[in-house]
Amino acid sequence: MKSFRLHVPGLALCVLAFAGSALAQTSSLEGTVKGEDGQPLKDALINIDRKDIKGHYQVKTKKKGDYFHAGLPLGTYKVTLVVDGKERDSVDNVRTKLGDSVPINFDLQGQKARSEAQAKAVEAGTLAPEAARDMTPEQKAALEKQIKERAGAMAKNKALNDAFNQGMEAMKSKQYQAAIDGLTKAAEMDPKQNVIWGQLAEAHSELAKTKTGAEKDAELTKAFEAYQKAIELLPTDASYHNNYALALARMNKFPEMQAELAKAVELDPANAGRYYYNLGAVLINANQTVPACEAFDKAIAGDPNYADAPYQKAMCMTGKATISADGKTNFPPGTDKEFQKYLELKPDGQFAESSKGMLEAMGAKIDTEYRNPNAPKKSAAPAKKK
After folding, report:
1. What is the pLDDT of residue 112?
2. What is the mean pLDDT of residues 208-237?
3. Alpha helix (H) ranges present in the chain?
4. CB 47 within 8 Å of CB 24
5. How many CB atoms lie within 10 A of CB 203?
6. How far apart are CA 349 and CA 142, in angstroms?
């Protein structure tokens, strides 16, 4: 019995010694923080996040910019400097150890200088010795990778710009096939540029005007595909929807055309008059007189001051004129008013002489005095007292 009692204290001592050994397996981090002015930075936050298992610790810098955090379990950490709520620098994969603290210092002034030197190195395409002097092998390898990627991107951008500019120059000189070749090459190099697809669609659309039959339809189909890609990349551009609508009208795809035009008007209601006018002009050229006249009506409703629209509407109305038994030409009511409206808005316009000639043929009085349709109406003069 006595021997049993004598062993109990020994067992208790062994347990305590083991517990003491477990508590001793801790480590610490310390360091200093300097601001962009090179002075110690007080109250900067140091986040210490364990990477091998979950664990998060924090400490703030003191008056002299120093910090110390003890009691950290042995492990691997990421140490992050936070100033005014923003992460400014970090050191990853910090392994702590027993005994002496692991020093992790931050120098924002030095970091800024290093960042500027690295940016210059990437811009210049070469890593100067002074820029690489204080780098770790990993940092140097990462920067050299950046330099190589930038060089590749610059070469690609030059080739892209050359192809695009080649296409645009060809468009100016109406060499549409050459324009298509250049713009297609540009689209292959960077298919995410909406402007390339928009210009490629225009080139196919213009080339289609020089073709007939199946060749014309083939070019218009390619224009449709390019417009669709441009719209997919930038669906809020009203001009893409408008131009796509005009191309669709040339293949008599009127329901699809109406949908695209409605989208253009929805996105840019201020230019609704011009969109509908352009549509009417395309329909006239396609011998679609009735829908063309409807488009000109919508153009006038969208912009009453767009002078060409009433002229074209008047021309549509003259197409409905009839000849009576006595040989007199009878124009639909209001035809003369539309010609007159054009002259009021644009007395020296390209259709002025044609409008005057039509008014004379109708026997109507020609009034070329300009009136601002937006001018306030004059109030009636007060009656004189008798």
Report:
1. 65
2. 95
3. 2-23, 108-124, 129-132, 137-172, 176-189, 194-208, 213-233, 238-249, 254-267, 272-285, 289-302, 308-318, 335-345, 352-362
4. no
5. 28
6. 65
Please report where in the chains the tokens 């080739």 appear, as a residue: 159
> Which of the pair, 352 or 366, is modelled with greater confidence?
352
- 197 vs 224: CA distance, rounded Å: 10
Question: Which tens digit of pLDDT belongs to each residue from 118-173?
Answer: 666 555 555 555 555 555 677 667 666 766 666 666 567 788 888 999 999 999 99
pLDDT-derived band at 21 (thresholds 50, 70, 90) equals very low
Of 22-36, 57-71, 221-235, 346-360, minimum mean pLDDT range: 22-36
Distant-in-sequence, close-in-space partners of 204: CB < 8 Å, separation ≥ 6: 176, 180, 219, 220, 222, 223, 226
Quote the CA–CA distance of 215 and 222 in Å, as a whole number: 11
What span, in angstroms and rounded, lies between the C-alpha atoms of 164 and 152? Answer: 18
Residue 235 has pLDDT above 50, yes or no: yes
As given in the structure block, the two tokens for residue 77 are 């950490």
Q: Amino acid identity, residue 12?
A: A
Residues 6+ apart with CB under 8 A from 40: 32, 33, 34, 61, 63, 64, 65, 66
Check if the beta carbon of residue 134 is closer than 8 Å to that of residue 105.
no
Average pLDDT over residues 270-275: 88
- Class at the top of the CATH hierarchy for domain 2-34+41-106: mainly beta
Strands 76-83 and 86-95, bridge-based pairing: antiparallel
The tokens of 317 are what?
A: 């109305």
Of 199, 289, 207, which Cα lies nearest the Cα of 239? 199
Q: Tell me, what's the pLDDT at 10? A: 43
Angle in degrees, CA 290, 216, 293, rounded to 5: 10
**Number of neighbouring beta carbons within 10 Å of residue 289:** 15
Q: Would the pTM of this model clear 0.90, i.e. be above it?
A: no
Domain boundaries along the sequence of the chain: 2-34+41-106, 307-373
Q: CB burial class (10 A; 0-12, 13-18, 19+) of residue 225?
A: middle
Closest CA to 221 of 193, 253, 192: 253
